[in-house]
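seq/struct pair 1
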Amino acid sequence: MAKGLFITIEGMDGSGKTTQIEKIKEYFQQKGYEPVLTREPGGTKISEKIRNIILDESNTGMSPVTEMLLYASARAQLVFEVIKPALNQGKVVICDRFIDSSYAYQGYGRGIDLKFIENVNEPALDNVMPDITFFFDIEPKLALARRISATGADRIEKEKLEFHERVYKGYKDRAALFPHRIKIINANRSIEEISEEVRFWLNKVCP
């Protein structure tokens, strides 16, 4: 693959992202690639430290703008250190969350102006955007119940249901704006049914 391929995975926590990321990794391994897996916030030593600050349950007084700037800072480091170098080497990069999360969570969820988020993230992205994004679509209430029963809840997940419903709307609106890039995947199905649809789209970007 002369040019790298950048795939991002979006959705509410509890939507089954982690399981499908493993399936996507296997898909590329079967094709002879060794994909680079990473996540947001995190993926580098510096970005993981920022992640700990963002998700720390004791940081209840964090302002929405502080939160958004921390996400952008973690993203800038991840792009600089991992994503852009890997893509320049022609690798497949699979990232659990990326820029669409900021619009959904900090824009729709926290009420921060979307243009402000765009301006702040422009240098963080450094002209890197996903080739394809999978949004695993599941009702927020069900997704939260799944997540909390499995792993408990972090600072973001402990927000009221109304917050998560706004985030969900943000994702749906983003998908409507960028249908060529963001593929809505019904996540309320079996693992194999979901994986089959994901592979259908992957075959189009990596025949």
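seq/struct pair 2
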Amino acid sequence: MQHNETPRSDAGLMASELAAALTVNDVHASAAWYRDVLGFTIDRTHEREAQVVAISLRAGAVRLLLTQENGAQGVDRPKGVGFSLQITTTEDIDGVATRAQANGGVLDAAPFSTPWGARAFRIRDPDGFRFTVSSPQPGARD
């Protein structure tokens, strides 16, 4: 079998959701940013020895876990380098982008139409994690 061939088996992964865990410099400030700028809700706060070590966030089926940087790998290590995450919504992208900016978010890319028929914008959180937020447009092709 060549490397790019799909195995013919029913034993493949049948995932239904993906959640991300992000290590951040200030878990409280980051949670506030996700709440205020992107509209996530705080689902749960995780404590250890009376200290908040993580905060779980939710926006519909999308879940993020923000964990507090503990310095074990260096406090100033780069975060969010080399990858981006995509959030898909049915909301009006221009409205979401306007709301994000009104609440302190700085867009990396203003709303734009993609060649495959979606509308999207790009934004980066306070630690440099990149997100593309997109919405399929009516009549868009798959």
